Amino acid sequence: MIDSNQFGLPPLSLYIHIPWCLRKCPYCDFNSHQSTEIPERQYTAALIDDLDQELESVQGRALQSIFFGGGTPSLFSGGAIDTILEAVRQRIRFASDIEITLEANPGTAEQHKFSDYWQAGVNRLSIGVQSFAQEQLQQLGRIHSAEEAATAVGMAQGAGFTNINIDLMHGLPAQREPQARADLLRAIELGASHISWYQLTIEANTAFYSTPPVLPNEDSLADIQLSGEQLLADRGYLQYETSAYATAGQQSQHNRNYWLFGDYIGIGAGAHGKLTDSGTGAIQRRWKTRQPKHYLDPEKSFCSGQKFLDSAELPLEFMMNALRLNNGFDSALYQQRTGLPLSALEPTLSTLQQRGLLQREMQRIAPTDLGRRFLNELLAAF
User: Fold this and answer.
1) The pLDDT value given to residue 10
2) How many CB atoms lie under 10 A from the CB of residue 162?
Protein backbone atom coordinates (compact mmCIF):
# COMPACT_ATOMS: atom_id res chain seq x y z
CA MET A 1 0.00 0.00 0.00
CA ILE A 2 2.90 2.35 0.70
CA ASP A 3 4.22 2.71 -2.85
CA SER A 4 1.18 3.18 -5.07
CA ASN A 5 -2.10 4.97 -5.58
CA GLN A 6 -4.32 5.51 -8.57
CA PHE A 7 -3.40 9.17 -9.12
CA GLY A 8 0.35 8.73 -9.45
CA LEU A 9 0.87 10.94 -6.40
CA PRO A 10 2.95 9.85 -3.40
CA PRO A 11 1.16 8.00 -0.59
CA LEU A 12 -0.48 10.28 1.97
CA SER A 13 -0.12 10.28 5.76
CA LEU A 14 -1.40 12.56 8.52
CA TYR A 15 0.64 13.88 11.43
CA ILE A 16 -1.22 15.31 14.45
CA HIS A 17 0.80 17.28 17.00
CA ILE A 18 -0.20 17.49 20.68
CA PRO A 19 2.21 20.10 22.10
CA TRP A 20 1.93 19.74 25.89
CA CYS A 21 4.01 17.85 28.46
CA LEU A 22 3.78 17.69 32.23
CA ARG A 23 7.52 18.42 32.32
CA LYS A 24 9.96 19.53 29.63
CA CYS A 25 12.82 17.04 29.40
CA PRO A 26 16.29 18.63 29.46
CA TYR A 27 17.34 16.98 26.17
CA CYS A 28 14.16 17.79 24.21
CA ASP A 29 14.16 20.33 21.39
CA PHE A 30 10.73 19.39 20.02
CA ASN A 31 7.86 21.85 20.05
CA SER A 32 6.55 20.94 23.50
CA HIS A 33 5.24 23.17 26.27
CA GLN A 34 5.10 22.36 29.96
CA SER A 35 1.61 22.66 31.46
CA THR A 36 -0.75 20.91 33.84
CA GLU A 37 -3.82 22.59 32.32
CA ILE A 38 -4.57 21.18 28.88
CA PRO A 39 -7.38 22.80 26.82
CA GLU A 40 -8.38 19.43 25.38
CA ARG A 41 -11.79 20.34 23.98
CA GLN A 42 -10.66 23.65 22.48
CA TYR A 43 -7.56 22.11 20.91
CA THR A 44 -9.52 19.16 19.52
CA ALA A 45 -11.87 21.57 17.78
CA ALA A 46 -8.93 23.56 16.43
CA LEU A 47 -7.31 20.40 15.00
CA ILE A 48 -10.49 19.61 13.11
CA ASP A 49 -10.70 23.17 11.75
CA ASP A 50 -7.02 22.92 10.76
CA LEU A 51 -7.70 19.66 8.92
CA ASP A 52 -10.63 21.23 7.07
CA GLN A 53 -8.26 23.84 5.65
CA GLU A 54 -5.93 21.09 4.41
CA LEU A 55 -8.48 18.91 2.60
CA GLU A 56 -7.62 20.27 -0.84
CA SER A 57 -4.22 18.60 -0.39
CA VAL A 58 -5.76 15.13 -0.18
CA GLN A 59 -6.44 15.03 -3.94
CA GLY A 60 -8.50 11.87 -3.75
CA ARG A 61 -5.98 9.77 -1.85
CA ALA A 62 -6.60 7.42 1.06
CA LEU A 63 -4.66 7.89 4.28
CA GLN A 64 -2.02 5.22 4.73
CA SER A 65 -1.10 6.20 8.29
CA ILE A 66 -1.85 8.62 11.11
CA PHE A 67 0.63 9.57 13.82
CA PHE A 68 -0.17 11.41 17.05
CA GLY A 69 3.12 12.97 18.20
CA GLY A 70 4.18 15.51 20.73
CA GLY A 71 4.63 16.66 23.32
CA THR A 72 2.69 13.97 25.08
CA PRO A 73 -0.40 12.83 23.15
CA SER A 74 -1.33 10.45 25.98
CA LEU A 75 -2.28 13.47 28.08
CA PHE A 76 -5.42 13.54 25.94
CA SER A 77 -8.36 11.35 26.88
CA GLY A 78 -9.49 8.41 24.82
CA GLY A 79 -12.67 10.36 24.07
CA ALA A 80 -10.71 13.23 22.53
CA ILE A 81 -8.61 10.88 20.41
CA ASP A 82 -11.82 9.15 19.27
CA THR A 83 -13.38 12.50 18.34
CA ILE A 84 -10.31 13.46 16.30
CA LEU A 85 -10.12 10.13 14.48
CA GLU A 86 -13.83 10.11 13.71
CA ALA A 87 -13.55 13.63 12.27
CA VAL A 88 -10.65 12.53 10.09
CA ARG A 89 -12.52 9.41 8.98
CA GLN A 90 -15.52 11.51 7.92
CA ARG A 91 -13.31 13.70 5.74
CA ILE A 92 -10.65 11.40 4.29
CA ARG A 93 -10.84 7.77 3.21
CA PHE A 94 -8.75 5.34 5.27
CA ALA A 95 -6.66 2.61 3.64
CA SER A 96 -7.87 -0.83 4.67
CA ASP A 97 -4.61 -1.49 6.51
CA ILE A 98 -4.11 1.99 7.93
CA GLU A 99 -1.54 2.28 10.72
CA ILE A 100 -2.57 4.65 13.53
CA THR A 101 0.17 5.39 16.06
CA LEU A 102 -0.01 7.33 19.31
CA GLU A 103 3.02 8.32 21.36
CA ALA A 104 2.50 7.58 25.05
CA ASN A 105 4.32 8.20 28.30
CA PRO A 106 4.67 5.15 30.56
CA GLY A 107 3.25 6.95 33.61
CA THR A 108 0.44 5.33 35.59
CA ALA A 109 -2.13 7.98 34.58
CA GLU A 110 -1.52 7.34 30.88
CA GLN A 111 -1.58 3.55 31.20
CA HIS A 112 -5.24 3.52 32.17
CA LYS A 113 -6.15 5.19 28.87
CA PHE A 114 -4.62 2.51 26.65
CA SER A 115 -7.87 0.53 26.31
CA ASP A 116 -9.71 3.71 25.33
CA TYR A 117 -7.12 4.46 22.65
CA TRP A 118 -7.50 0.93 21.28
CA GLN A 119 -11.27 1.32 21.17
CA ALA A 120 -10.88 4.67 19.38
CA GLY A 121 -8.97 2.97 16.56
CA VAL A 122 -5.33 3.47 17.52
CA ASN A 123 -3.53 0.24 16.56
CA ARG A 124 0.08 1.08 17.38
CA LEU A 125 1.60 2.58 20.53
CA SER A 126 5.00 4.21 20.78
CA ILE A 127 6.02 4.26 24.44
CA GLY A 128 8.69 6.76 25.44
CA VAL A 129 10.72 4.73 27.93
CA GLN A 130 14.25 6.06 27.11
CA SER A 131 15.84 3.81 29.79
CA PHE A 132 14.91 1.08 32.25
CA ALA A 133 17.58 2.29 34.70
CA GLN A 134 16.13 4.48 37.44
CA GLU A 135 19.24 6.63 37.82
CA GLN A 136 19.25 7.37 34.10
CA LEU A 137 15.57 8.29 34.10
CA GLN A 138 16.27 10.82 36.83
CA GLN A 139 19.17 12.36 34.93
CA LEU A 140 16.99 12.57 31.81
CA GLY A 141 14.25 14.37 33.72
CA ARG A 142 11.68 11.64 33.06
CA ILE A 143 8.70 11.55 35.41
CA HIS A 144 8.04 7.80 35.21
CA SER A 145 9.88 5.06 37.06
CA ALA A 146 11.61 2.02 35.62
CA GLU A 147 8.86 -0.15 37.08
CA GLU A 148 6.13 1.96 35.50
CA ALA A 149 7.88 1.66 32.14
CA ALA A 150 7.73 -2.14 32.26
CA THR A 151 4.15 -2.10 33.54
CA ALA A 152 3.08 0.21 30.70
CA VAL A 153 4.10 -2.32 28.06
CA GLY A 154 2.06 -5.02 29.79
CA MET A 155 -0.92 -2.67 30.07
CA ALA A 156 -0.70 -1.92 26.34
CA GLN A 157 -0.60 -5.61 25.49
CA GLY A 158 -3.54 -6.25 27.81
CA ALA A 159 -5.50 -3.51 26.03
CA GLY A 160 -5.07 -5.33 22.71
CA PHE A 161 -1.94 -3.77 21.22
CA THR A 162 0.40 -6.16 19.44
CA ASN A 163 2.31 -3.46 17.56
CA ILE A 164 4.28 -1.64 20.25
CA ASN A 165 7.36 0.51 19.80
CA ILE A 166 9.67 1.25 22.73
CA ASP A 167 11.80 4.38 22.50
CA LEU A 168 15.25 3.97 24.07
CA MET A 169 18.28 6.23 24.12
CA HIS A 170 21.91 5.24 24.44
CA GLY A 171 25.09 7.18 25.06
CA LEU A 172 23.55 8.45 28.29
CA PRO A 173 25.59 10.16 31.03
CA ALA A 174 28.25 7.77 32.37
CA GLN A 175 26.62 4.87 30.51
CA ARG A 176 28.70 1.85 29.56
CA GLU A 177 28.02 -1.00 27.15
CA PRO A 178 26.54 -3.41 29.74
CA GLN A 179 24.01 -0.79 30.87
CA ALA A 180 22.91 0.05 27.33
CA ARG A 181 22.66 -3.65 26.57
CA ALA A 182 20.52 -4.20 29.68
CA ASP A 183 18.03 -1.59 28.44
CA LEU A 184 17.71 -3.38 25.11
CA LEU A 185 17.38 -6.79 26.75
CA ARG A 186 14.53 -5.51 28.92
CA ALA A 187 12.67 -4.12 25.91
CA ILE A 188 13.13 -7.43 24.08
CA GLU A 189 11.96 -9.44 27.10
CA LEU A 190 8.83 -7.28 27.32
CA GLY A 191 7.92 -8.25 23.76
CA ALA A 192 8.31 -4.96 21.91
CA SER A 193 7.68 -5.46 18.20
CA HIS A 194 9.67 -2.35 17.33
CA ILE A 195 12.53 -0.58 19.09
CA SER A 196 13.67 2.94 18.30
CA TRP A 197 17.22 3.07 19.68
CA TYR A 198 19.08 6.30 19.18
CA GLN A 199 22.02 8.15 20.66
CA LEU A 200 21.48 11.05 23.03
CA THR A 201 22.69 14.23 21.36
CA ILE A 202 22.89 17.68 22.89
CA GLU A 203 20.71 20.09 20.91
CA ALA A 204 20.57 23.87 21.02
CA ASN A 205 17.71 25.45 23.00
CA THR A 206 17.63 22.66 25.57
CA ALA A 207 18.56 22.58 29.26
CA PHE A 208 21.34 20.09 28.49
CA TYR A 209 22.83 22.58 26.02
CA SER A 210 23.16 25.16 28.79
CA THR A 211 24.51 22.69 31.34
CA PRO A 212 25.72 19.64 29.39
CA PRO A 213 26.15 16.32 31.18
CA VAL A 214 29.30 14.25 30.78
CA LEU A 215 28.62 11.74 28.01
CA PRO A 216 30.56 8.59 27.04
CA ASN A 217 33.63 9.06 24.83
CA GLU A 218 33.78 7.98 21.20
CA ASP A 219 35.25 4.56 21.97
CA SER A 220 32.50 3.79 24.49
CA LEU A 221 29.83 4.99 22.06
CA ALA A 222 31.23 2.70 19.35
CA ASP A 223 31.22 -0.27 21.74
CA ILE A 224 27.63 0.45 22.73
CA GLN A 225 26.50 0.79 19.11
CA LEU A 226 28.16 -2.40 17.86
CA SER A 227 27.05 -4.47 20.83
CA GLY A 228 23.47 -3.24 20.63
CA GLU A 229 23.18 -3.80 16.90
CA GLN A 230 24.47 -7.36 17.28
CA LEU A 231 22.10 -8.10 20.16
CA LEU A 232 19.08 -6.83 18.27
CA ALA A 233 20.03 -8.78 15.15
CA ASP A 234 20.51 -11.96 17.19
CA ARG A 235 17.05 -11.53 18.70
CA GLY A 236 15.32 -11.08 15.34
CA TYR A 237 15.08 -7.28 15.13
CA LEU A 238 15.92 -6.07 11.64
CA GLN A 239 17.59 -2.68 11.46
CA TYR A 240 15.81 -1.00 8.58
CA GLU A 241 16.69 2.64 9.33
CA THR A 242 19.42 4.51 11.18
CA SER A 243 17.78 4.09 14.59
CA ALA A 244 14.82 1.76 13.91
CA TYR A 245 14.69 -1.99 14.54
CA ALA A 246 11.65 -4.19 14.00
CA THR A 247 10.50 -7.78 14.09
CA ALA A 248 9.11 -9.23 10.86
CA GLY A 249 6.34 -7.10 9.37
CA GLN A 250 6.43 -4.48 12.12
CA GLN A 251 8.29 -1.63 10.45
CA SER A 252 6.74 1.79 11.03
CA GLN A 253 4.72 2.50 7.90
CA HIS A 254 4.27 6.14 8.86
CA ASN A 255 7.98 6.76 9.20
CA ARG A 256 8.77 4.78 6.05
CA ASN A 257 6.46 7.16 4.17
CA TYR A 258 8.56 10.08 5.43
CA TRP A 259 11.80 8.38 4.45
CA LEU A 260 10.54 7.40 1.00
CA PHE A 261 9.56 11.03 0.36
CA GLY A 262 5.83 10.45 0.56
CA ASP A 263 3.32 13.20 1.31
CA TYR A 264 1.95 14.07 4.72
CA ILE A 265 -0.46 16.62 6.10
CA GLY A 266 0.57 18.18 9.40
CA ILE A 267 -2.00 19.61 11.80
CA GLY A 268 -1.48 21.01 15.28
CA ALA A 269 0.83 23.60 16.80
CA GLY A 270 4.23 23.45 15.10
CA ALA A 271 3.27 20.58 12.77
CA HIS A 272 4.99 20.34 9.39
CA GLY A 273 3.61 18.98 6.13
CA LYS A 274 5.04 17.99 2.75
CA LEU A 275 2.63 17.93 -0.20
CA THR A 276 2.77 17.36 -3.95
CA ASP A 277 0.47 19.06 -6.46
CA SER A 278 -1.08 16.59 -8.90
CA GLY A 279 -1.25 19.12 -11.72
CA THR A 280 2.24 20.60 -11.63
CA GLY A 281 4.21 18.10 -9.54
CA ALA A 282 5.40 21.01 -7.39
CA ILE A 283 6.41 20.03 -3.86
CA GLN A 284 5.51 22.30 -1.01
CA ARG A 285 6.51 22.29 2.64
CA ARG A 286 4.25 24.10 5.06
CA TRP A 287 4.29 24.54 8.82
CA LYS A 288 1.88 25.65 11.50
CA THR A 289 2.28 28.29 14.17
CA ARG A 290 4.28 26.88 17.10
CA GLN A 291 2.79 28.53 20.18
CA PRO A 292 -0.42 26.80 21.37
CA LYS A 293 -1.97 30.12 22.45
CA HIS A 294 -1.50 31.48 18.93
CA TYR A 295 -2.71 28.25 17.36
CA LEU A 296 -5.89 28.49 19.45
CA ASP A 297 -6.45 32.18 18.65
CA PRO A 298 -9.43 32.32 16.23
CA GLU A 299 -8.07 35.59 14.81
CA LYS A 300 -4.82 33.98 13.70
CA SER A 301 -4.04 31.61 10.83
CA PHE A 302 -3.01 28.05 11.60
CA CYS A 303 -0.36 28.22 8.88
CA SER A 304 2.84 30.03 9.84
CA GLY A 305 4.74 29.57 6.59
CA GLN A 306 5.08 27.64 3.36
CA LYS A 307 7.70 27.10 0.71
CA PHE A 308 7.87 25.43 -2.68
CA LEU A 309 11.04 23.42 -3.17
CA ASP A 310 13.04 24.28 -6.26
CA SER A 311 14.84 21.72 -8.39
CA ALA A 312 18.22 22.52 -6.81
CA GLU A 313 16.90 21.59 -3.36
CA LEU A 314 15.16 18.36 -4.29
CA PRO A 315 18.17 15.99 -4.56
CA LEU A 316 19.26 16.65 -0.98
CA GLU A 317 15.66 16.71 0.30
CA PHE A 318 15.06 13.28 -1.19
CA MET A 319 18.40 11.71 -0.27
CA MET A 320 18.47 12.91 3.34
CA ASN A 321 15.33 10.84 3.83
CA ALA A 322 15.75 7.83 1.55
CA LEU A 323 19.38 7.16 2.47
CA ARG A 324 18.44 6.77 6.13
CA LEU A 325 16.98 3.41 5.10
CA ASN A 326 19.42 0.49 5.23
CA ASN A 327 18.00 -0.90 1.99
CA GLY A 328 17.86 2.50 0.35
CA PHE A 329 15.40 3.01 -2.49
CA ASP A 330 14.49 1.79 -5.93
CA SER A 331 16.14 4.03 -8.52
CA ALA A 332 12.82 4.71 -10.29
CA LEU A 333 11.43 6.21 -7.08
CA TYR A 334 13.69 9.25 -7.34
CA GLN A 335 12.03 10.53 -10.51
CA GLN A 336 8.58 9.49 -9.31
CA ARG A 337 8.92 11.58 -6.15
CA THR A 338 10.94 14.54 -7.45
CA GLY A 339 10.14 14.73 -11.16
CA LEU A 340 13.88 14.90 -11.85
CA PRO A 341 15.97 12.38 -13.83
CA LEU A 342 18.33 10.31 -11.72
CA SER A 343 20.85 10.47 -14.54
CA ALA A 344 21.62 14.07 -13.56
CA LEU A 345 23.15 12.73 -10.34
CA GLU A 346 25.28 10.09 -12.04
CA PRO A 347 28.67 11.79 -11.42
CA THR A 348 27.88 12.20 -7.73
CA LEU A 349 26.56 8.66 -7.36
CA SER A 350 29.63 7.20 -9.09
CA THR A 351 32.00 9.17 -6.86
CA LEU A 352 30.20 8.04 -3.71
CA GLN A 353 30.26 4.46 -4.92
CA GLN A 354 34.01 4.66 -5.55
CA ARG A 355 34.51 6.04 -2.04
CA GLY A 356 32.65 3.07 -0.59
CA LEU A 357 29.78 5.14 0.82
CA LEU A 358 27.11 4.01 -1.63
CA GLN A 359 26.19 0.72 -3.27
CA ARG A 360 24.11 0.03 -6.36
CA GLU A 361 22.72 -3.42 -7.02
CA MET A 362 20.21 -4.03 -9.79
CA GLN A 363 17.84 -1.04 -9.53
CA ARG A 364 18.46 -0.31 -5.83
CA ILE A 365 20.61 2.44 -4.36
CA ALA A 366 21.60 2.16 -0.70
CA PRO A 367 24.24 3.34 1.75
CA THR A 368 27.02 0.90 2.58
CA ASP A 369 27.90 0.10 6.19
CA LEU A 370 30.53 2.83 5.90
CA GLY A 371 27.99 5.20 4.38
CA ARG A 372 25.61 4.67 7.30
CA ARG A 373 28.41 5.45 9.75
CA PHE A 374 29.29 8.63 7.87
CA LEU A 375 25.81 9.57 6.72
CA ASN A 376 26.34 13.33 7.04
CA GLU A 377 29.39 13.12 4.79
CA LEU A 378 27.42 11.04 2.29
CA LEU A 379 24.54 13.53 2.21
CA ALA A 380 26.87 16.53 1.89
CA ALA A 381 27.65 15.34 -1.67
CA PHE A 382 24.12 16.28 -2.73
Assistant:
1) 97
2) 11
Report helix, strand or coil for 378: helix
Residue 76, exposed/middle/buried by CB under 10 A (0-12, 13-18, 19+)?
buried
CA angle (169, 171, 173) in 5-degree steps = 105
Within 10 angstroms of residue 341's Cβ, the number of other Cβ atoms is 10
Contact 336, 363 (CB under 8 A): no
CA gap 362, 378 in Å, rounded? 21
**Of the candidate ranges 4-18, 191-205, 279-293, the one whose mean pLDDT is the lowest:** 4-18
The DSSP 8-state label assigned to residue 2 in this structure reads: T
Which amino acid, one-letter code, is at 132? F
Number of CB atoms found within 10 A of residue 280's CB: 9
Map out the domains of the chain with their CATH numbers: 12-258 (3.20.20.70), 314-380 (1.10.10.10)
What does the pLDDT look like over 143-182, one tens digit per residue?
Answer: 999 999 999 999 999 999 999 999 999 999 999 999 999 9
- Bridge partners, residue 265, by sequence: 14
Nearest to 266 by CA among 4, 6, 18, 5: 18
The DSSP code sequence of 157-193 is: HHHT---EEEEEEES-TT--HHHHHHHHHHHHHTT-S
Of 117, 252, 275, 138, nearest to 196 by C-alpha is 252
Task: Give Cβ neighbours of residue 252 (< 8 Å, ≥ 6 apart).
Answer: 99, 101, 124, 165, 194, 244, 246
The pLDDT, as a whole number, for residue 6 is 38
Q: How many helices (H) and strands (E) does the chain have?
A: 16, 17
